[in-house]
Design goal:
Layout: E1 4-9, H1 17-32, E2 36-41, H2 47-58, H3 64-88, E3 93-96, H4 98-101, E4 103-105, E5 114-117, H5 120-127, E6 131-135, E7 138-140, E8 146-148, H6 154-164, E9 169-174, E10 195-197, H7 198-206, H8 214-222, E11 227-231, E12 240-243, E13 256-260, E14 263-272, H9 277-287, E15 292-301, E16 306-314, H10 315-326, H11 329-332, E17 336-340, E18 343-349, H12 359-369, E19 376-380, E20 383-389, H13 393-403
Parallel strand pairs: 1-2, 1-9, 2-6, 3-6, 9-11, 10-12
Antiparallel strand pairs: 4-5, 7-8, 11-12, 13-18, 14-16, 14-17, 15-16, 18-20, 19-20
The chain binds adenosine-5'-diphosphate (ADP), aspartic acid (ASP) and magnesium ion.
Length: 421
């Protein structure tokens, strides 16, 4: 039987018709090598951002259902154009959306999780020798409602298909040629990694390295999907292989650095120090499906026996969170809710931290010497995160990259935009 390969192409890789033709070349290459090919594509260029903006120009609070109806249209365009490009080159291809395939998700708009994928339609098309072009990012509930998986979610579609169909590999093609020690657009001296463990990649992705969606890494790890990040524009380049940590030799304490610029810091000020307060605050947020990241509770006032509870979350969730918290003001008797959006989370990640003390102090010392104030700290077994002022981000990430000696001497040539200035 032929090998099965899943290829995924992100927005920049299908930004215009010429780029779609370039993607067709990459797909045809795999097909001509004798593989069965499933291609997952994102919406063209900044289409999804543009769709979001149009809705937000009408109202700040568009309904999540209609947002999913709107956002799912972006991928519909790119799959059809890619199938047309493949057909025009003489290859049999068919584009399919989530409804046609049966990519089922939970009933949760804008951040739905895939629950299962029907294989029948895809297998039928593959058996007929066709290249199957699938719309990333979208799903359908049991009731036939359209959902989306969360921004950057096409990665999840690709890995989920690779897992369910037992693909031989899943290649994520993007606008950089692999996973780097830091976002190469922010740190031009970042080094490309030939390989990285699922665990480290997951921590980096959760810490803001958007080269892969964290849930796609989680799914790849759980189902042993052979996952690779590679360049849409340098097809011979092998990119970066994501693999089990047990298969790797770990030389350095820190493997990579990530930055998350989309965090908000919320402080519930002067809450009376009583049992059950934190539980109330966080369960109210959890009920609205809002994930909280870093948390600090500090003694605000000894005399009045009150605490400040500070935490971070994705800034998209902050508006709803503030509303929920304010509705608890009378019950919890706090003084006010503060929000700060001018912050960034900088994280260092490395499986090599385990059993190597002193990494956190080295990080704090480097930031202190650069006069960067740390507002919050959080750690996991293989990650240390510090919250800093947004204006310090660039400096912080470059200093840490030097401190942990992550450069290999090469310089990344930036094409396209910079994520921060
Ligand atoms: P796509 O549209 O292909 O899904 P994304 O913009 O989601 O592409 O992801 C690719 C981008 O991720 C790169 O252009 C780069 O700026 C950013 N990035 C962040 N951290 C890293 C990293 N550690 N290695 C490589 N790229 C990174
Ligand atoms: N088009 C969607 C987005 O921009 C999904 C993706 O690109 O992965 O978030
Ligand atoms: Mg992406």
């Amino acid at each position: 039987m032929n090998n099965l390969v899943v290829q995924k192409f992100g927005g920049t890789s299908v930004a215009d018709v010429d780029k779609i033709k370039n993607v067709a070349d990459a797909v045809i290459r795999e097909k001509r090598n004798g593989n069965n090919v499933i291609v997952v594509v994102s919406a063209m260029g900044h289409t999804t951002d543009y769709l979001v903006k149009m809705a937000k120009d009408i109202t700040d609070t568009p309904s999540p259902r209609e947002m999913d109806m709107l956002l799912s249209t972006g991928e519909g365009i790119s799959i059809a154009l890619l199938a047309i490009a493949l057909q025009s080159r003489g290859y049999d291809a068919v584009s399919l959306n989530a409804m046609q395939i049966g990519i089922h998700t939970e009933d949760k708009h804008m951040k739905a999780r895939i629950t299962d994928i029907e294989k029948a339609r895809i297998e039928k098309e593959l058996n007929a020798g066709k290249i199957v072009v699938v719309a990333g990012f979208q799903g359908v509930t049991q009731d036939g409602e359209i959902t989306t998986l969360g921004r950057g979610g096409s990665d999840i579609t690709a890995v989920a298909l690779a897992a369910i169909l037992n693909a031989d590999r899943c290649d994520i093609y993007t606008d950089v040629d692999g996973v780097y020690t830091a976002d190469p657009r922010i740190v031009p001296t970042a080094a490309k990694l030939d390989e990285i463990s699922y665990e480290e990649m997951l921590e980096l992705a959760q810490a803001g390295a958007n080269v892969l969606h964290p849930r796609s890494v989680e799914a790849a790890k759980a189902h042993n999907v052979v996952l690779r990040v590679r360049s849409s524009f340098k097809l011979n380049d092998k990119g970066t292989l994501i693999l089990g940590v047990d298969k790797m030799e770990i030389n350095k304490a820190v493997t990579g650095i990530a930055v998350d610029l989309s965090q908000a810091r919320i402080v519930v000020c002067s809450v009376p120090d009583r049992p059950g307060t934190a539980a109330k605050v966080f369960s109210a947020l959890a009920k609205e499906n809002i994930s909280v990241d870093m948390i600090i509770q500090s003694y605000a006032n000894k005399e009045h026996n009150t605490n400040d509870i500070a935490f971070t979350m994705n800034s998209d969730d902050a508006g709803v969170a503030i509303e929920i918290l304010r509705s608890l003001k009378d019950e919890l008797e706090f003084s006010e809710v503060e929000a700060n959006f001018d912050i960034a989370k900088v994280s260092v990640v490395g499986a090599g931290m385990i059993g190597r003390p002193g990494i956190a102090s080295k990080m704090f010392k480097a930031l202190a010497e650069a006069d960067i104030n740390i507002k919050m700290i959080a750690t996991s077994e293989i990650k240390i995160s510090c919250l800093v002022d947004k204006s310090d981000t660039q400096k912080a990430i470059r200093i840490l990259h030097d401190t942990f000696e992550l450069s290999d001497g090469s310089i990344f040539e930036v094409t396209g935009g910079l994520p921060i200035s």
